[in-house]
Amino acid sequence: MRLLIVIAALLALVLPAAAQVDFDTKARYAVLMDYESGTVIFQKDADTRLEPASMTKLMTLAVVFNELRAGRISLEDKFFVSENAWRTGGAASGGSTMFAELNSQIRVEDLIRSVIIQSGNDAAIILAEGIAGTEPTFATMMNQLAGQIGLDGSHFTNSTGLPDPEEYSTARDLAELGRYLIREFPEFYHYFSEPEMEWNKIKQSNRNSLIDVGIGVDGLKTGHTAAAGYGVVLSTAQGDRRLVAVVHGLTSMRERAEEGRKLLTWGQRAFERFAPYPAGSIVAHADVYGGEAGSVGLVGKGEIALYLPRGSRQCLSATVNYTSPLLPPVRQGDQIAELRVFCNDQLVQTAPLYANEDVPQGDLVRRATDALKQLALGWL
């Protein structure tokens, strides 16, 4: 049973009211996320499975960066260009390529730059084979890391994003993957904003056309297939705030750039930041059945900062959602609920909530009492 705790009155006390949220996008799938808190400011079919196309390469890069940090490879290592990489991802394939020469060897740093700037399919396969021996084995590493990051809506079968019915992700997962790369690997993030790369005497521009257009975009990755349409994972930093956005399922590169720009610009200008819940402050309580305590406090991971639309005074409401019955033991730090903030009944933001303390299993008397309480609630 899903329980809702309505906390509109609490928000009304601590926040100014906000304006009607009237933004929409031509993208079939979209997410706008605050980088620092991970809260979602805008979403459209954010949890629907999609074909990630070359945005898959962000997961490839996550594995590569982890291997670099662990010292198992270095930027100066050279990887061999196999016939599989050359044929599947090279010039003959007709897709995005760095034009790697068959049987040559290429530095890891150059391969990384190609994956990011040129979206080189051959470069992605060369990295996968150089690290794991085969691309399927590398895909296993991708899925293992995706699980650790918490990308529950994703599954990867290759390093490139070339079409495969068993490879999928969601707009929310792609945004979280972008946050992960920015947060965990700042030493490598500068590659995403390089405007161009030349290899084998062929110069190619960064596929992310919003780089250096004056709105602060400095990453991350585009994607396109005939079936999936055009998509991009974007990030922008202006002032002390960074946003991560995903738009996908668009009809052209121009439309992709325009819809991405509109979403980011709207997020930057239409919202104000409020922090009604300092780190450790309890947002609400969730009932615990059969525990030493009858409820547990719900807190954010650090401060909960809300980004709410500027404007009118009558639109705010919020709920806390969690699955009941909540059974012990509950561990401090367990994610057990979600804060959802609405403006005129339209969801504008979500934030995860965590248990603020342990709640062990209670004694027999306590468990019996709570069992009756749960039954009574059920009848009501």
From TrEMBL:
The active site is at 54 (acyl-ester intermediate), 57 (proton acceptor), 119. Residues 271-361 form the Peptidase S11 D-Ala-D-Ala carboxypeptidase A C-terminal domain. Pathway: Cell wall biogenesis; peptidoglycan biosynthesis. GO terms for biological process: cell wall organization; peptidoglycan biosynthetic process; proteolysis; regulation of cell shape. It comes from Devosia equisanguinis. Removes C-terminal D-alanyl residues from sugar-peptide cell wall precursors. Its EC number is 3.4.16.4. Residues 1-19 form the signal peptide. Belongs to the peptidase S11 family. It catalyses: Preferential cleavage: (Ac)2-L-Lys-D-Ala-|-D-Ala. Also transpeptidation of peptidyl-alanyl moieties that are N-acyl substituents of D-alanine. Substrate binds at residue 221. This is serine-type D-Ala-D-Ala carboxypeptidase. SUPFAM superfamilies: beta-lactamase/transpeptidase-like, Penicillin-binding protein associated domain. The keyword Ribonucleoprotein does not apply. GO terms for molecular function: serine-type D-Ala-D-Ala carboxypeptidase activity. Keywords: Carboxypeptidase, Cell shape, Cell wall biogenesis/degradation, Hydrolase, Peptidoglycan synthesis, Protease, Signal. The gene is dacC.
